[in-house]
């Protein structure tokens, strides 16, 4: 993971053709992440995993619903929403999930992500009852992710809109050992290059479904 630069994020509730899936999985991206907010079901996740299983690309399930956890992924990423107003998104749901899947956890070693959601119009922002942090608060969340919780990943999630590159730069300077993931609004090679200057890994998701060819260009932009 320390050598990754690019991840494609697929929503199991959205349609993607077999041809497009083949192109993504063989594009040179470092991993395919499966995750979303609305209409996430066990069957949807399982069906997408079955289609991905034909490829050697690294497969990640980012867990958003406990009843949609499917075995067979290479990694399981578990968000801890640092700017949520509700403790359940930092601890309670994680406690419940670990309790239910303790035996399996011994084999998969889940990866916990410190999430900071920066788009108040995003469904995930509303779903997790988050509060919008300013730049100073965001830097404090980054500090907490690394120094308080010792999380391997701090994820700046703009979820559908292109973020503030200067803030991403500041966050990158705040972190030393924790990896900085950036996701949100990357629609072309230029945006991919800009955010990759500061983030360790960029996540490209929505543009897969809105402009597939430009989404594909983001791989070559950060992995020449």
From TrEMBL:
It catalyses: sn-glycerol 1-phosphate + all-trans-heptaprenyl diphosphate = 3-heptaprenyl-sn-glycero-1-phosphate + diphosphate. It holds the Pfam family PcrB. Keywords: Lipid biosynthesis, Lipid metabolism, Magnesium, Metal-binding, Phospholipid biosynthesis, Phospholipid metabolism, Transferase. InterPro entries: GGGP/HepGP_synthase_I, GGGP/HepGP_synthase_sf, GGGP_HepGP_synthase. It comes from the Bacteria. PANTHER family: HEPTAPRENYLGLYCERYL PHOSPHATE SYNTHASE, PTHR40029. This is Geranylgeranylglyceryl phosphate synthase. The lineage of its organism: Bacteria, Bacillati, Bacillota, Bacilli, Bacillales.
């Amino acid at each position: 993971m320390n050598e990754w630069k690019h991840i494609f994020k697929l929503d199991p509730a959205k349609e993607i053709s077999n041809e497009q899936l083949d192109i993504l999985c063989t594009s040179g991206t470092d991993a395919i992440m499966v995750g979303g907010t609305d209409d996430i079901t066990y069957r949807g996740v399982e069906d997408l995993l079955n289609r991905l299983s034909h490829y050697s690309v690294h497969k990640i399930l980012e867990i958003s619903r406990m009843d949609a956890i499917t075995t067979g992924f290479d990694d399981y990423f578990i968000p801890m929403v640092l700017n949520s107003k509700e403790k359940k998104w930092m601890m309670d749901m994680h406690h419940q999930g670990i309790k239910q899947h303790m035996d399996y956890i011994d084999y998969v070693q889940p990866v916990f992500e410190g999430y900071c959601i920066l788009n108040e119009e995003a469904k995930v922002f509303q779903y997790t009852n988050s509060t919008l942090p300013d730049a100073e608060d965001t830097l404090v969340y980054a500090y907490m992710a690394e120094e308080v919780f010792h999380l391997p990943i701090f994820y700046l999630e703009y979820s559908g809109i292109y973020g503030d590159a200067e803030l991403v730069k500041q966050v990158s300077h705040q972190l030393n050992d924790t990896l900085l993931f950036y996701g949100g609004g990357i629609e072309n090679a230029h945006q991919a290059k800009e955010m990759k200057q500061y983030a360790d890994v960029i996540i490209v998701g929505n543009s897969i479904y809105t402009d597939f060819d430009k989404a594909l260009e983001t791989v070559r932009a950060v992995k020449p």
